[in-house]
Amino acid sequence: MQKVLHRGAASYDPLYDPLTAPSLGSGSDYAPTYWIDTAGAPPADDGPVTGDFDVECAVIGSGYTGLNCAMALTRDHGVETVVLEAHGTAYGCSTRNGGQAQFSAGRLKRSQWIDRWGLDVAQRLHGEMLEGFDYWRGQIRDHAIDCEPQDGGHFYLAHKASMMPPLEKEAALLREKFGYGARMMSRAEVHEQVVRDQEAQGAMYEPDGVGVHAAKLAFGYCRVAREHGAKVHVDSPVDGWTYKNGVHHLRTPGGTVRAKKVAVATAGYAPRGLHARLRDRIMPIMSNSIVTRVLTEAELAEVGAKALSPLTDTRTLRHYYRLLPDNRLQIGSRAAITGRDAANPAHLASLREGMARKFPVLRGVELDYSWWGWVDVSHDMMPRITGLKDLPGAFYALGYGGNGVMYSAMAGRRMAQLVAGQKVPDLPIFGTELKHEGWKTPFRRLGQWGLYQLYHYRDERQ
């Protein structure tokens, strides 16, 4: 069963692919996610753009990052701001993710930060994540965003015995080099205290991890941004962008927005034609998610989920999952490579099998929701919040790699600081741009297919 809250005139396109679609279109229904179906009505907005106008800053994209950027610009810097969204508020990643806020951004571990940049930079980047988590919690608390936060830490579960030593090494590094309270748990402790995942051989526990209702979080951000003066224009895709005489001209179906500054927060959903200077900065990767029907008492006892905060396993093609507050189980993982293959039933069957390996009692359980969406993965596995050196007044925050639920709030704040001309920390995620891969990106999908075969072999057979 798939449900969706209808809001647009156009039908939802489940096969949309940002690498091949000429544009985002406009006015579409939301994806049929659990979050949308249980969030209530979408937040109030300012309707489509109707006519030409001038503004200090235009934010492209109304997800977590874009709304936090708009909020910070209006609240903290007094910058007149409009948000331009192709469909409904938070149409993309922000209402299709797993609702898991983890203590990171991007795909790299702390040990990999050290290998890439050295200990000093890694420690300062760790400090940015700490500050970011505090800021994110504060956004929810101070603005009374009712997103059902389940704060209990993050459990990184070893899906096979050979993954325990690497986890133990990473936990020791976190304690000794970063002063962070990570610790190991045995299989028995995981089953008794966290969840009865039958694959789990143990886990690394991180104190920071929160489960949230993804759409209620996004809709709350929208409310707060508008309360501080930002305008949120839905059904207003940017289908033309030129820069002349120090002004960005953003063409939408209803009119042209002339902006002194532009902040791009499109995650994995912007078509390649948004602007030549932004093309192929990230690789959109698809992730699938399912939500079961409400589980019975007997099923809940077998699942044994005592933690409602994020659970992630150690597969490269990882599973992320948790028990939701209404006693449904949500689980997600990587899926199709192209949009045209997204509805292939093999991907749903694979995710079902992954759930059944963890919880045999759920083999064949009825599903209430099934959806997929695009994740913005950077080529070096780390995000960037920075300006475009060859396009004055233009900035972007992209590349979270599936770890943006928490850090997107801080990223929006940092991008607002850049727009306002303020300094941001001297860190690689701010001081360098994402690589511009150009013509290579579509062909990378051939490599992605090969890597998925290798990752699956390593995950399941070695």
Structure description:
Residues 1-6 have low confidence and may be disordered. This protein is globular. With 462 residues, it is of the alpha+beta class. Strands 1, 2, 9, 10, 11, 12, 18 and 19 form an eight-stranded mixed sheet that branches. The protein has an eight-stranded mixed sheet with strand order 6-7-5-14-15-16-13-17, sandwiched between helices. The chain has a domain at 150-210 and 284-373: D-Amino Acid Oxidase, subunit A, domain 2 (D-Amino Acid Oxidase, Chain A, domain 2), CATH 3.30.9. α2 (64-77) runs parallel beside α7, α3 packs across α4 (119-142) and α4 (119-142) packs across α10 (407-419). A hairpin with a 6-residue loop joins β14 and β15 (320-323). It has helices at 34-38, 64-77, 110-117, 119-142, 164-178, 187-193, 214-227, 297-303, 345-358, 407-419, 428-431, 440-460; strands at residues 53-60, 81-84, 100-102, 150-151, 154-157, 183-186, 202-206, 209-211, 231-233, 240-244, 247-252, 255-264, 282-292, 311-313, 320-323, 329-334, 367-378, 384-387, 394-398. It is built from twelve helices and 19 strands. The chain starts with 33 loop residues before the first helix and ends with a helix.
